[in-house]
Design goal:
It is a single chain. The chain is mainly beta. Helices cover 0% and strands 36% of the residues. It has a domain at 20-62. The protein has strands at residues 24-28, 31-35, 44-50, 56-62. The protein has a two-stranded antiparallel sheet with strand order 1-2. The relative contact order is 0.18.
Length: 66
């Protein structure tokens, strides 16, 4: 349990998949909410695959940066 007295600082390193330019934080009523959005290349990409005359399949997987 942490108790408040004086100033307090906590630091941590961001994963490489986080877009550091879009990080945001909001503090309200003793609750700190931090948003760490992923970089576009770290998000999974959906690709529709048509197989002959069969139904459409959806493939999910990470996008590959060229």
């Amino acid at each position: 349990m942490e108790r408040q007295y004086g100033s307090f600082t906590r630091t941590f390193n961001l994963p490489t998949t986080v877009d550091a330019d879009k990080v945001s934080a909001h503090y309200d009523k003793g609750v700190l909410k931090i948003s760490l959005p992923k970089k576009a290349e770290a998000k999974p990409k959906q690709i529709k695959v048509n197989v002959g005359s069969e139904k459409t399949l959806e493939a999910k997987g990470p996008s590959k940066a060229a």
